[in-house]
């Protein structure tokens, strides 16, 4: 199968990245993880890049790498899809426009509810009865692009920020991969 070359952007643990790498090792999964971009040199997710020998780039304000250089690298690696998997920095409008291909993001709430940070706190404060995750295309506005899919669960009285996070992340791993199948078929 001809796979789509993808680049995963991360900032932290990389548990979504791990699932994406494992899935991409399956013949039938439509993408390859060709490159990893991370804005945090201490991110745990970089251990995965090293483990699977996937090239990675640290892209933060400290190392003078410009968006143009990143765009050129994406071209060099023939990247046709960007996956934001816990990337805690906004991509500039110029970057999104210049890349010109699909960028998708996973967000830990049922969009359009609870955009931005601290979603679990917001969900509890609003006494929501259910929550979950959303995979969506990235456009120039925060957590606003066209929705590809959502997955949800019902909240129970004992739930707190920690349990909501765990339950949401468990949904995310399959949601991301399903969304990739959906947009590539
Ligand atoms: C995920 O919960 C995702 O929804 C959010 O950041 C988290 C990243 O987790 N955008 P991980 O780094 O994949 O473990």
Structure description:
- The structure is a single chain.
- By secondary structure, this protein is an alpha/beta fold.
- It is built from six helices and seven strands; from the N terminus they run βαβαβαβαβαββα.
- It has a seven-stranded mixed sheet, covered by helices on one side.
- Helix 1 runs parallel beside helix 6.
- It is globular, with a radius of gyration of 16 Å.
- The two termini are 12 Å apart.
- The mean pLDDT is 95.
- The chain binds 5-O-phosphono-beta-D-ribofuranosylamine (GRF).
Summarize, please.
This protein is α/β, with parallel strands linked by helices and 185 residues long. The chain is built from 6 helices and 7 strands; from the N terminus they run βαβαβαβαβαββα.
Small molecules held by this entry: 5-O-phosphono-beta-D-ribofuranosylamine
Total number of β-strand segments? 7
Percent of residues in helices:
25-40%
Mean pLDDT over the full residue set:
95
> How big a fraction of the residues is strand?
15-25%
The helix/strand order is EHEHEHEHEHEEH
Helix vs. strand class: alpha/beta
How far apart are the first and last residues' alpha carbons, in Å? 12 Å
- Write out the strand line-up for the largest beta sheet, numbering strands in chain order: 3-2-1-4-5-6-7
The number of distinct helices, counting runs of at least 4 residues, comes to 6
Sheet of most strands: 7 strands, mixed
The value of Rg in angstroms is 16 Å
Given as residue ranges, the uncertain stretches (5+ residues, pLDDT < 50) are: none
What gross morphology would you assign? globular
């Amino acid at each position: 199968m001809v796979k789509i070359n993808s680049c995963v952007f991360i900032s932290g643990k990389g548990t979504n990245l791990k699932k994406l790498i494992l899935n991409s090792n399956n013949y039938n999964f439509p993408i390859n993880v060709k490159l990893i971009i991370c804005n945090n040199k201490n991110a745990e997710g970089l251990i995965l890049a090293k483990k699977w020998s996937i090239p990675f780039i640290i892209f933060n304000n400290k190392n003078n790498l410009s968006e143009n250089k990143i765009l050129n690298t994406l071209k060099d690696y023939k990247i046709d899809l960007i996956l934001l998997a816990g990337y805690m920095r906004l991509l500039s409008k110029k970057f999104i426009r210049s890349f010109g291909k699909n960028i998708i993001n996973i967000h830990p709430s049922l969009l359009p509810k609870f955009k931005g940070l601290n979603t679990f706190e917001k969900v509890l404060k609003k006494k929501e009865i259910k929550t979950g995750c959303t995979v969506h295309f990235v456009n120039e506005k925060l957590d606003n692009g066209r929705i590809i899919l959502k997955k949800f669960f019902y909240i129970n009285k004992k739930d707190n920020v920690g349990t909501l996070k765990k339950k949401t992340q468990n949904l995310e791993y399959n949601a991301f991969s399903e969304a990739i199948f959906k947009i590539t078929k």
